[in-house]
Amino acid sequence: MKTVHFFIVSICVILVSELRSQTVLKANGSTETYSLINSVLAPGYTAVEPPDCSHTDFGPHIDQVFDAELQQYVFRFQIHTSPDNDRCISFDRQRNEIKTYDSSPDNLKATIGENVVYKWKFKLPANFQPSSNFTHIHQIKAVGGSEESMPLITLTPRKASPNRLELRYSDHLDQITLTQIDLSKVLDRWIQATETIGVGEHGSYSLLLEDIADKSIVLNYAQADTRVWKTDADFLRPKWGIYRSLLDKASLRDEMLYFADFSIEEKSDLPEALSTLRPNAKQYSIYPNPAATHFTIKDLVILPNDTALLYNAKGQLLQTFSLQTNQIAISTLVPGAYYLVLRNNRLTKAYIPFVKE
Fold first, then answer.
1. pTM of the predicted structure, to 2 decimals
2. Which residues pair with 308 in a beta bridge?
3. Could you give the strand order of the β-sheet that contains 306-312, starting from the edge strand earlier in sequence?
4. In this model, does residue 3 exceed pLDDT 50?
5. Burial 285-315 (b: 16+ CB within 10 A, else e)
6. Contacts of residue 321, Cβ cutoff 8 Å, sequence gap at least 6
7. Among 125, 196, 199, CA closest to 163
8. What is the DSSP-derived secondary structure letter of residue 102?
C-alpha cells in the first residue's frame, strides 16, 4: 500500500510541474468591445472601468480600430481632460482601464507560488503628454490586505525634462523607481511588453519592452529574490489602460492609447520554492507516507535558522514555521497531496512531497 501512495505523489508532482494555463484577449473588430473584454477577463461580470458615466454623449471610451502596421484590429482607449473622471467617484483624477479582479477566473489571479507571464502590445501617440503627478498605463495590484491601496508594480509616463517612462515598485506602502527611460523611446511605435513575476515573499520580477518594428530592446529590467506580494493579500491582478491625475490638468490633452494582444499565462502551479530548486536538492525519505497524524523525516539534522514551508498541491503557501524536530504534525490538514519545503537562511535545502490520508 505504501508503494502505491508514493506512486500517487510522484504523479502529482509531474502533473503540477507541467501545468500551463493561458488566457488571451484580442480585438476582433466585430464583437461589441466591452462584451469582448468582459467575456475574457471576467465572464458574466464587468472588467472595464471607463469614464462613460460622466461623458455619456461620447459613448464607449474603449473601442476597436484596424491598425495598418500590425495588420489587425486593436483596442483604442480614449480619455478627455474634461469631463472625464474616475467613474463618477473621484474627480481629481480620471481612469479608463481594464482589469482582472475577484470575479475573474482563478487562473487570472496570481497567488503565492505561481509564476505568471503577462504579455501585451501598446502604442502611445507621438505627442503624448503625461502629468507631472501620475499617468499610469499598467499596474500590478493586490486585492485584500492592508497594503492593497499601493500598487506593487506601476508603469507610468511622467512629465519631466525630458519626459520619461518609469517602472515603479512598492514592497509595502512606500514606492520607489526601479528604472526609467526617455519617454520618446516608446512614442509613436508599437511596443511588445513581456512581464514575468514569481509571486512570493522571495519572488522575482522582470519587464522587457521591445520595439516591434526593429526588434530593439528599449527597456530590460529583472530582479531576483524580491518581495512580489502584499501583506495579507488574497491575490495579485493586472490593470491596463490610462489612469492619470488631474492636478496638473494644464499639462494634459485628450489622448488615444492603443493596446493589443493581452495574454495572461500561468507557467506553473509548482510552489515557488520548488520551481527554483537546483537539480541536486535533496529529497529526504519520510515515514509513514501517507500519514494520518504525523510523519518523521529520516536522517534530518536540524540547523539553526531552519524553517519549514507547507504548500498544498496548488502551490499555495499554507504555513511557515521554525523547524524544531524531525517529526511533523499534520492532523489538522485535510486529506490530499502536500509539499514540505525545508530552508536554512532562506535557501532551500530540500523538499518533501507527502500525502495526508
1. 0.73
2. 321, 342
3. 317-322, 306-312, 336-344, 347-356
4. no
5. ebebbbbeeebbbeebeeeeebebbbbbbbb
6. 307, 308, 310
7. 125
8. T
